[in-house]
């Protein structure tokens, strides 16, 4: 008689409104790596099913009145929308049928919408903050108040960086609820490889991420334009898709570097790894977006470091928690394209010195962001939340 190994494991219901957007590979890795718990996903929308295959997905469709409800909350109440009593009851039924012992809500702003469910469910809930979901719209009193109520209702709050912990404490979250749960990087998929530096000045730069303001792509383009004045054969690849693509392409033309800049659009993990190993330097000059959007610790940056790419980034968000300036990478101030250019020009004058930050960067990722270690820590937090009930 076969024994179902899953049957004896407690069920964690992972609420992810869209399972999964292309850039959410870190969530997929986290959920599928669980061993002590059996994950069941609750989602309103399913995307990229072939890229992210997963069997236990329960679709919770939006009601027909969802759009009107959002408009009513935002425009008339000037507050974040909340799920209705009917939606709450339906989700409680789903959790009961799944025999869930714990609810993990991905992204803080989603947990705010689900607060009626969190407050009515008798079992524990945890929420994880990833960066973009910490400060956006919180200058509005109603949004701030709703977030505080949600934080009071959940059992534990998970953050990807110490910078996010500090931001949440300032917001009003009780410090004793917060747990550091870093992004996990599968090191076996991005093994360290030493780079050979170009003798002809044909430096290959890479930046990868969603094309949005906080990633600092404008700074990368401006710095690269100045760098290319000295090294005419240098190239820059921007791997990613997003709302700023047209604006960035226009900037590249204005800077006269369009022929040296490649916009790849979204690339799958396999292709991204190829780009890592084909490149010499990784750029990630993140900055706080106009809406308050900030980074935790960027996944693409961590994978680049693991692969052996020296990283030039900024003192922003959780980046200094992964990179020690001058040792495991180079950090400049946010939005300072001139400083970034200076550091790049200085580095390539003695390229053999780049081997040290490349090696130390990979060691930093291995010590602090290895996937299995981070998932085991997550499972410990799950058990802690259950034990506290």
Structural commentary:
- The structure is a single chain.
- The protein is α/β, with parallel strands linked by helices.
- It folds into 2 domains: 5-184 and 370-387, 3-Layer(aba) Sandwich (Rossmann fold); 187-368, Glycogen Phosphorylase B (Rossmann fold, 3-Layer(aba) Sandwich), CATH 3.40.50.
- Helix content is 40%, strand content 16%.
- It contains 14 helices and 15 strands.
- A 7-stranded parallel beta sheet has the order 5-3-1-6-7-8-9, sandwiched between helices.
- α9 (245-254) links the parallel β11 (235-239) and β12.
- α8 (217-230) packs across α12 (337-349) and α11 packs across α13 (355-368).
Brief write-up:
This protein is of the alpha/beta class and 389 residues long. It has helices spanning 25-32, 66-77, 85-98, 108-113, 115-120, 141-153, 162-171, 217-230, 245-254, 269-278, 299-307, 337-349, 355-368, 371-387, and strands at residues 11-15, 18-19, 38-43, 45-46, 57-59, 100-106, 125-129, 156-159, 178-180, 204-208, 235-239, 261-265, 281-284, 311-314, 330-332. It has 2 domains: 5-184 and 370-387, Glycogen Phosphorylase B (Rossmann fold, 3-Layer(aba) Sandwich), CATH 3.40.50; 187-368, Glycogen Phosphorylase B (Rossmann fold, 3-Layer(aba) Sandwich), CATH 3.40.50.2000.
Report the CATH superfamily of the largest domain. Answer: Glycogen Phosphorylase B
Global Rg: 22 Å
- Identify the overall geometry: globular
How many helices? 14
CATH topology of the largest domain: Rossmann fold
Major sheet size, sense and barrel closure: 7 strands, parallel
**Uncertain runs with pLDDT below 50, 5 residues or more?**
none
Q: First CA to last CA: what distance?
A: 35 Å
Largest sheet, spatial ordering of strands? 5-3-1-6-7-8-9
Instruction: Give the H and E element order.
Output: EEHEEEHHEHHEHEHEEHEHEHEHEEHHH
CATH A-level architecture of the largest domain: 3-Layer(aba) Sandwich
Q: What would CATH call the class of the largest domain?
A: Alpha Beta
The class by helix and strand makeup works out as alpha/beta
Report strand %: 15-25%
């Amino acid at each position: 008689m076969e024994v179902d190994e899953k049957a004896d494991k407690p069920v964690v219901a992972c609420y992810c409104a869209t399972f999964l957007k292309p850039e959410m590979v870190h969530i997929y890795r986290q959920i599928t790596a669980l061993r002590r718990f059996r994950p069941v996903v609750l989602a309103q929308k399913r995307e990229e099913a072939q890229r992210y295959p997963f069997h236990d997905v329960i679709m919770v469709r939006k009601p027909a009145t969802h759009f009107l409800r959002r408009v009513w909350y935002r425009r008339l109440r000037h507050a974040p929308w909340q799920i209705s009593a009917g939606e709450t009851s339906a989700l409680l039924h789903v959790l009961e049928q799944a025999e869930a012992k714990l609810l993990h809500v991905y992204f803080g702003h989603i947990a705010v919408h689900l607060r009626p469910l969190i407050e009515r469910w008798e079992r524990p809930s945890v929420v994880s903050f990833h960066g973009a979901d910490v400060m956006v719209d919180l200058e509005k009193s109603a949004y701030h108040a709703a977030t505080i109520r949600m934080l009071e209702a959940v059992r534990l709050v998970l953050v990807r960086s110490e910078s996010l912990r500090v931001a949440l404490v300032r917001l009003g979250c009780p410090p004793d609820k917060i747990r550091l749960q870093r992004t996990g990087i599968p090191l076996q998929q991005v093994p360290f490889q030493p780079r050979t530096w170009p003798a002809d000045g044909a430096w290959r730069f890479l930046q990868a991420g969603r094309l949005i303001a906080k990633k600092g792509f404008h700074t990368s383009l401006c710095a690269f334009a100045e760098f290319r004045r000295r090294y005419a054969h240098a190239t820059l690849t921007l791997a990613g898709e997003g709302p700023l693509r047209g604006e960035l392409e226009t900037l590249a033309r204005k800077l006269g570097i369009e022929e040296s800049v490649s916009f790849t659009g979204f690339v799958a993990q396999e292709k991204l790894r190829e780009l890592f190993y084909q490149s010499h330097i990784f750029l990630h000059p993140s900055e706080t977006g106009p809406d308050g959007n900030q980074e935790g610790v960027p996944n693409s940056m961590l994978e680049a470091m693991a692969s052996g790419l020296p990283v030039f980034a900024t003192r922003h968000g959780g980046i200094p928690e992964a990179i020690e300036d001058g040792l495991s990478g180079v950090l400049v101030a946010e939005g300072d394209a001139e400083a970034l250019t200076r550091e790049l020009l200085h580095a390539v004058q003695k390229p053999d010195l780049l081997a040290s930050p490349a090696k130390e960067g990979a060691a930093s990722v291995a010590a602090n962001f290895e996937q299995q270690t981070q998932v085991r820590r997550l499972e410990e937090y799950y058990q802690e939340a259950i034990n506290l009930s």
